[in-house]
């Protein structure tokens, strides 16, 4: 798709840049490697901006720089900035004013405890994988919202309060660090969304060292 767009946009200039079939083949391979993981909506946006900025077909480096500006068009920080933001806000993420909810959810998926305690060589690829997946969801029209945990914090039911206290004691962390992960209990029992949030909570707590199964 990308090379077809470039050929239509740049016509004879594109032909001058890639004169032979072999050159086109090699170029497509390098571009495919460089753009692996970027989904169609982000690439389409970058192509539109490329038309405005470059009189000749862009290099891979130039096109990647345009993609990073495309993040801003969706209100998203680019992945590295998102990672640094998440790493700075691991202690009480539910109270943070996030630049975008995708940063919060990527941090939760990667595991706040892991982001806080493990080396960057481990946490950066993990965070990036989750963040890129969330970016795809955003540019495809999904609205993300950081969950509110007021009920967990201020009006916990006895069973929920006991579970929160038990997990906090086992992990030797504060109840405030556990509370966001139990948000799923406020979703309707038996629903897919509750199961989805529970699975995320289970994984996040396991990353912190919790070995028990959360209630359905």
Task: Report on the architecture of this protein.
- This protein has 216 residues and is an all-alpha fold.
- It has 3 domains: 2-73, no CATH class; 79-139, no CATH class; 150-208, no CATH class.
- It has helices at 2-10, 12-17, 21-34, 40-53, 60-73, 79-87, 101-110, 112-117, 120-139, 150-154, 158-171, 175-178, 192-208.
- The longest helix has 20 residues, at 120-139.
Brief summary of the model shown:
By secondary structure, the chain is mainly alpha-helical. Helices cover 66% and strands 0% of the residues.
Average pLDDT for all residues: 85
**Shape type:** elongated
Secondary-structure-based class equals mainly alpha
The share of residues in helices is 55-70%
Distance between the termini: 44 Å
How many domain units?
3
Count the DSSP helices: 13
Query: Spans of 5+ residues with little confidence (pLDDT < 50)?
Result: 151-156
Order of helices and strands: HHHHHHHHHHHHH
Percent strand equals: under 5%
The count of DSSP E runs of length 2 or more, i.e. the number of strands, is 0
The largest β sheet comes out as: none
| Alpha carbon gyration radius | 22 Å
How are the SSEs ordered, and which strands pair?
Blueprint (H helix, E strand, L loop, with lengths): L1 H9 L1 H6 L3 H14 L5 H14 L6 H14 L5 H9 L13 H10 L1 H6 L2 H20 L10 H5 L3 H14 L3 H4 L13 H17 L8
